[in-house]
Design goal:
Blueprint: E1 10-15, H1 23-36, E2 41-46, H2 48-51, H3 58-74, E3 83-86, H4 92-101, H5 106-110, H6 113-120, H7 129-144, E4 149-151, H8 157-174, E5 182-184, H9 219-227, H10 246-259, H11 263-269, H12 275-302, H13 306-333
Parallel strand pairs: 1-2, 2-3, 4-5
Helix pairs in contact: 3-12, 4-7, 4-13, 7-8, 9-12, 10-12
The structure holds adenosine-5'-tetraphosphate.
Adenosine-5'-tetraphosphate binds next to helix 1.
């Protein structure tokens, strides 16, 4: 079995700089990245190559890439503990992605829910091939680092399964090359739903006004969006998987993901309260999460040169590992080594 050569299991994850990060990105991914950073050998990248699977404005993409990296640190990642880097700074991601694309059956790719959802929003003729091949690039990201664990929201679980299947296919065809990764979802907050439509996942690229709380939202605006969240005509405040109770369930989930309290304690706390009280409590804990995070973020963005030095260090450290894995995969696949 191939594995990373260190003592600690390795972690790899990333977020696309395809817009402003939401509390969904924070609760589903970033928060657990921070929680596990001292326990594991962690690599976190800004996945800009993934962002271009839908059209991006070049200046905005550059800007959002910097902002995302700053947000990782503002959320609590310590660059001296976690390796933070930009995906496109390491060419091995694109190179391995091509090799894996050639091994990925179209049938598997067409079954991916994210592809079906995102391609349904475009006309058939204009859907980019990158959107279909997204999971092969994600597999390359993970396999390059021999990652054991991948902390993500549950919308990415299918891509993780795909990564495992593709790694097995490669190992079977060309000999043991890649480590099979496991998914790591947070106990609460693995799928935060839209505040305006609690049956759809909260997404950073969804542009309806009250859909998402962004990490950089003005605090009053964040509070307002939560106070306007869709609920229902019932009165009881409890966790529920019923579709018509999805709004209240989502508010309770946000509350739980932030406070880490048990479901029973939360339901007892709200037993004699109304939806207005629930919304106020959720707004309070969201705002107290955002406030220090925003302060740190603006500090970092104003600290000239700091972010670049973090990303340079990350590139060097991650690049060395990625290059070694790529070389081994190329050798195993039969590429002639340059003399
Ligand atoms: N609503 C969510 N609830 C919990 N986790 C979420 N994540 C995203 N939305 C939620 C997690 O955030 C990480 C980064 O996601 P991504 O940016 O790489 O892609 P995504 O899953 O497609 O996220 P978005 O916000 O919906 O982006 P766009 O709108 O650009 O497609 C992943 O771990 C994801 O699970």
């Amino acid at each position: 079995m191939v594995s990373n050569s260190g003592n600690k299991p390795r972690v790899l994850s990333g977020i696309q700089p395809s817009g402003n990060l939401t509390i969904g990105n924070y609760l589903g991914a970033l928060k657990q990245w921070v929680e596990v950073q001292r326990q594991f050998d962690c690599f976190y990248c800004v996945v800009d190559l993934h962002a271009i699977t839908v059209a991006q404005n070049p200046d905005e993409l550059r800007q959002k890439t910097r902002e995302s990296a700053a947000m990782y640190i503002a959320a609590g990642l310590d660059p001296e503990v976690s390796t933070i880097f930009v995906q496109s700074h390491i060419a091995a991601h694109s190179e391995l992605a091509w090799m894996l694309t050639c091994m990925a059956p179209l049938g598997w790719l067409h079954r991916m829910t994210q592809f079906k959802d995102k391609s349904a929003k475009q006309s058939q003729e204009s859907i980019g091939a990158g959107l279909l091949n997204y999971p092969s690039l994600m597999a390359a990201d993970i396999l390059l680092y021999h990652a054991d664990l991948v902390p993500v929201g549950d919308d990415q679980n299918q891509h993780l399964e795909f990564t495992r299947d593709l790694a097995q296919r490669f190992n079977h065809a060309y000999g043991e090359t890649f480590t099979l990764p496991s998914v790591m979802n947070p106990e609460a907050g693995a799928r935060i739903m839209g505040l305006d439509n609690p049956t759809a996942k909260m997404s950073k690229s969804e542009d309806s006004e009250n859909h998402a709380v962004f990490l950089l939202d003005d605090l009053a605006a964040a509070r307002r969006k939560i106070m306007r969240a869709v609920t229902d005509s019932h009165r009881e405040i409890r966790f529920s998987s019923e579709r018509e109770r999805a709004g209240v369930n989502n508010l309770l989930t946000i509350y739980q993901a932030i406070t880490d309290e048990s479901s029973a304690d939360i339901e007892a706390h709200f037993a004699d309260k109304g939806y207005g009280d629930l919304k106020r409590a959720v707004a309070d804990c969201v705002v107290s999460t955002l406030e220090p995070l925003q302060a740190r973020y603006y500090e970092l963005m104003n600290e000239k040169g700091y972010l670049d030095s973090v990303l340079k260090l990350g590139r060097e450290k991650a690049g060395a590992i990625a290059e070694a894995t790529l070389k081994r995969a190329q050798e195993n696949m039969g590429f002639l080594a340059p003399s």
